[in-house]
Structures are given as C-alpha cells and as structure tokens.
Amino acid sequence: MAEFTPLSALIGGCLIGGAAGLLFWLDGRIAGISGIFGGLVEAGAGDRYWRVAFLAGLVLGPLLHAAVTARPPAFVVTPSLPLLVAAGLLVGFGTRLGHGCTSGHGVCGLARLSRRSLVATLSFFASAVVTVFVARHILGG
C-alpha cells in the first residue's frame, strides 16, 4: 500500500463531493456508480450522454493524474482471476440487495442524512472488515 498523503486525499475527497453535489444540484440525480452504470442499458439517448461522461471521468481521472505527475497510480492486484470474478459478482449482488453502492449511500446518502444509507454504509464497512480479517488472518492470504 502506498503511504498516506493527506493533501491528495483531501483534494480527491473534494472532487468526489463536488461532482456528487453538482450532479444532485444541477440534475437532481444521485452519484451512485452502480446506478449510473446500470442505467446505461435502459437509458434514453439524452440520458445516456451524462452517464457515459461520468463513467469516462472515472477512467480518465487516473490517466490524467499519470500525465500530470509523470507517474502512474500505484496499485497491485494479487488475487486470482476466479477470485476477482467471484468478488465482482458478490459486489453486484450486494448493490442490488442494498439498492445502491458505497458511492450512492456513503457519499450521497449520508450527505442527505438518510438513515437507510447510514445502515447500508455501516453494513458495507462491517462486511469489508470481516472479509479482510478472514482473508488475511484465517485463510492466510
């Protein structure tokens, strides 16, 4: 894991919060990634453009960072492909079950003081803590 850099974390948090706030204030929409991505299938032509632009920003942001700082973001993926596929399917199932994802509930829902989002976010993080503990300390991964 890379070292903690408070300034970049603060800037990133402000950008995420600003983007979520603008989307809500200007268009009345929640910046939940699972809903934005899932809505691409059912979206009409006018609704599709902003969704594609939002998702493109998620991909282009790290590339822009790499171009500006002359170094790519550092991350390492060590699990096997079947484990990643299983994890992705579980996350997809969880977002449907919880009617949203960490971005929709954790960023936008908590900002709106939604009790449902508070419960969902606490559930997400509790599940993450248990998963990491089992994977690292019980299974030895």
What's the arrangement of secondary structure elements?
Layout: H1 6-27, H2 33-42, H3 45-69, H4 81-97, H5 102-111, H6 115-138
Helix pairs in contact: 2-3, 5-6
Describe what you observe in this structure.
This protein is mainly α and 141 residues long. The protein has one domain (6-138). Helices cover 77% and strands 0% of the residues. It has six helices and no strands. The protein has helices at residues 6-27, 33-42, 45-69, 81-97, 102-111, 115-138. Helix 2 (33-42) packs across helix 3 and helix 5 (102-111) packs across helix 6. It is globular, with a radius of gyration of 17 Å. The two termini are 15 Å apart.
Short description:
By secondary structure, this protein is mainly α. The chain has helices at about 5-25, 35-40, 45-70, 80-95, 100-110, 115-140.
Based on the model shown, name its key terms.
141 residues, 6 helices, 77% helix, mainly alpha
Q: How many DSSP H or I helices?
A: 6
Measured by DSSP, the beta-strand proportion falls in: under 5%
Main beta sheet, described?
A: none
The helix-strand sequence is: HHHHHH
Return the average pLDDT rounded to an integer.
Answer: 84
Q: What shape does the CA trace take? A: globular
Number of domains: 1
Which runs of at least 5 residues are low in confidence (pLDDT < 50)? Answer: none
Q: Structural class of the secondary structure composition?
A: mainly alpha
Oligomeric state: single chain
Number of separate strands: 0
Into which percent range does the helicity of residues fall? over 70%
